[in-house]
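FORM 7B - TANDEM STRUCTURE REPORT

SECTION 1: FIRST PROTEIN
SEQUENCE AND C-ALPHA CELLS:
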Amino acid sequence: MPTLRDATAESPAPVRAVANAVAQWIDRLGGVWVEGQVAQVTRRPGMQTVFMTLRDTVADISVTLTCSRTLFDSMNPPLVEGASVVVHARPTFYANRGSFSLAAREIRMIGLGELLARLERRRQLLAAEGLFAPELKRDLPFLPTRVGLVTAPNSAAERDVLDNARRRWPAVQFEVAYAAMQGQRSVPEVVEALERLERHPDVDVIVVARGGGSIEDLLPFSDEALVRAVHGLRTPVVSAIGHEPDQPLLDLVADVRASTPTDAAKLVVPDMAEEVNGVTWARDRLRQVMTQRIAREQEWLVQLRSRPAMADPRNLLTARSGELDELLARARRTLAHRLDRAADDIGHQRARAQALSPLATLQRGYAVLQDADGRVVTSVDQASVGAAVSVRVADGRIHATTSSIEPHDVEEP
C-alpha cells in the first residue's frame, strides 16, 4: 500500500489510510489545555460518557467534548450550559466515524462559569432552607384593587406592563415604585420599593419587571438579601425579569414567574373582552337552561291538566260515590244476614232452654211434691199419713193432706 506522500491519481490512498494518518497525527498532540464555553450537555441513559459541545468564546467554532460520568457528577456545583471552563483534554480522532472530539481529563470553571457556580451553590443553599417550596406559593387575586410595580423609570418593561394591563382591563390601577434595576444600588432600592408597596393598603399583588440583559446585568435579582426579602412578603409577587431563558433566583422565590413583562401584565389582570364573552356565554347558557326547564314544566302541567281527574274532578267523586253505595248496600245485606242468623240462633237456644226447663216437664202433666218445710219429696219414706204437702204444677200449687201412702213393691215396667 503506498504512503500518503506517494499517493497519486493513478495510485490513490484509501480512506482508511487517510483517517488513520489523521488519527496518528492528532494523537501526537497529547494533552492540551483548552478554554471555551459549554453550549450543550447530553447525558444518555445507560452510558458512562457525557457528551458536551465546547464553543470558542470569540469565533463561531465548536468541538465535541466528552468526559466520564464520574468526572461530570463529581463537579460541585454541577456543570451547566453557558458555563465558561478550562479543560485539560486529549484530542481524539475517531477514524471509523471521521469525527474529532476532546476527551476531558479535568474541567475547571472560570470567569462566568465561576459566577454561575456561585449562583448554583446559593440556589442549593436557599432551596435547602425551603424558600422555594411549592407549598409556599400563593394564588394571585382574580381582579386586584391596585397592582404594585417595581421597575426602572421610563423603562420598556414599565411600558409593557402598563400598556398591556390597561389594554386588557382599562380600569386597572397601578402603584409604581421606581428602583435601579442593575448595578450596586439595585438590591437596596428594589428591597425598599417592595417594602413600600407591602405597606400600601390597596396593593394586592406586586410585579418586579425588568427587560433582558446579560447574566451580569441580572445578578441583583439573584442576590440573597433580595430573595429573602421577597420570601418575607405577605403580598403575592410576580417576577418578570429578562426573557424566557433567563431565570434568576427571584423567579424561584416569587409566587408566579412571568417569562416577560408583557406576560406579567397578562397574569395580574384578566382580559375584559374574554370576561365579557364569558359572562355573555354564561347568561345565554342560563337563559337556555331556564327556557328548557320552563318548557318541561309547562309540558308537565299540560299533561297533568289533561288527566281525567284534573279535567273534571267530579269523576273521582262519582266513581267513589258508586263504590260507597255498593259498599253500603253490601254492609246492610251482610248485617241483615248476620241478624237473621243471630235471631235463629237465639230461637234455637230458647227452644233448647225451654225444653230443659222444669216448667216444660210440669206442662206435660208432671208435678213436684214438697213437704211443709219446702223439701222435695222423692220417696214414700219422706212422707207420712196426715202430713201437709204442696203439689207444684205448671200453673200454680195445690195444698193437700196425705191420706195414705202406697209404696211400690215391684218396679213398674
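SECTION 2: SECOND PROTEIN
SEQUENCE AND C-ALPHA CELLS:
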Amino acid sequence: MDPVRNPYAPGAGQRPPELAGRDRQLQQFEVTLERVAAGRPERSMVLYGLRGVGKTVLLNALRSAAVQRAWGTGKIEARPDAGIRLHIAQATHAAVREVAHRHRDPDRVDGVAGVLKSFALATRQADRQGRGWVPGAHLSDVVATKGRADSGDLELDLVELFTDIADLARDLGVGIALFIDEMQDIDVAELAALCGACHEIGQQGAPLIVVGAGLPHLPAALAASKSYAERLFAYVEVDRLPHEMAERAWTVPAAGEGVTFEPEALAELYRVTEGYPYFVQAYGKVTWDAALADPIGLSDVQAAAPEAEAELGRGFFGVRYERATPAERDYMVAMADLAVQTGDGPVATAEIARHLGRKPQSLSPARDGLIKKGLVYSAERGQIAFTVPHFARFLRGRDLSTT
C-alpha cells in the first residue's frame, strides 16, 4: 500500500483517524457540560487506566467538546516534584482568554484578570521549585487584586480564583473546564487542596469542572488525599477496545482510502494487540505498509508483525526500560518472571523479594523509583503491577544479558 496514504497514527496523545469505542464517554461529557452550564449539580470527571489505552486522546477530545460549546478551557500536565500552582495559573489564564473577548463589561473582565494576576504572581513564593510566572501582554496593564487568591494557601486561593473565573463564564451562559493529564503525579498535599477547591466550587454550583486523567491508582490517590474524593468525581475507566470497536479503528480509516481487510486479518490483528489502542494503531500502520494489495490479508499481518514488535520494542517499551536504574530493571525482570503465574496481572511484593533473595525493605527504593517514574503502580496493598500493557511479555522476551 502507498505509505503516503497510510491512515493510522500511533503516537503519544495523537488522535487516531477513528476514535472508536469512546462514544459513551463523549456522550456522558456532553451531558455534564449541559447540566453544569444550566446550573445543575454535576461532578467533575477522572479518567484512569494503563498507558497506551488512549486517556490523553480522550482527554483532548473532551476538551474539544468543551471548546465547541464556547467554554473556557485550559490544560496542564502534572509532573513529579513540580508544584501545580504555576501550571494552574497558566491554564486558567488560557481559559479566561477564551471567554473574556466575548464579555460586554470590560471592567468586569479586568477585575477577574486582576485576581488571576494576583494568583499568578503568588507562584513566585508558592511554587516549590522557586519558579515564577510573570503574566504576558494580556495582563501586563492589569492591576493585581490584593487580598484575593494570593494568600499562599493553595486551597483557599484556588477557591477564590475558581469562583471568580466561573462567575465570568456564567455571565455568558457557559463554564470553565480545566484538564489535568498525569494527575497521579500531583503532590498529595496539592491534590488535597485541588479536591477541596472542587468540593467548595461544587457546593456553590459554580460552572467549573476539572477533568483529570491518570494511571490506574489515581482513584486511590485521590481517596487518600480527601475522604470524600470518591464522591467528588465521576470515575471513568479507560480500557482496551472490544473486538468490534478495534475492527472499526482499522476498517473505517482504510475504507476512506478504498481499502478493505479480510476477516482473518482482523482476527489476527486483534489477537496480537488485544485491543489496546496504541497497539491497534502501531500494528495497523506497519500492516498497511507491508500489504501488497487490497484486501489486506492474514499473510500481510503475519509479515508485518515482526516489524511492529521491533518498533514497539525500540519505542513504547524500550525507552521506558532504559529510564530505569540497574536495580529497578532487576525488580521489573523479577516482576515479569513472576507475572507468568498471574496472567501478567499484579504480583505480590513479598514474592518479588523471595525471587530475588532479598529482604522486602531493601527493595523499597527500587519499587518507589519505578512508581515515581510511572512504570509500575500499587494495585492494592502488597501488590504491584506494570502500568504498560504487554511490558512483562516484552521483558521476558528481551535479551537482557548485554544491558
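SECTION 3: OBSERVATIONS ON SECOND PROTEIN
The first helix runs from residue 23 to 37.
The chain has three domains: 23-237, 244-320, 325-397.

SECTION 4: SIGNATURE
Preparer initials: ____
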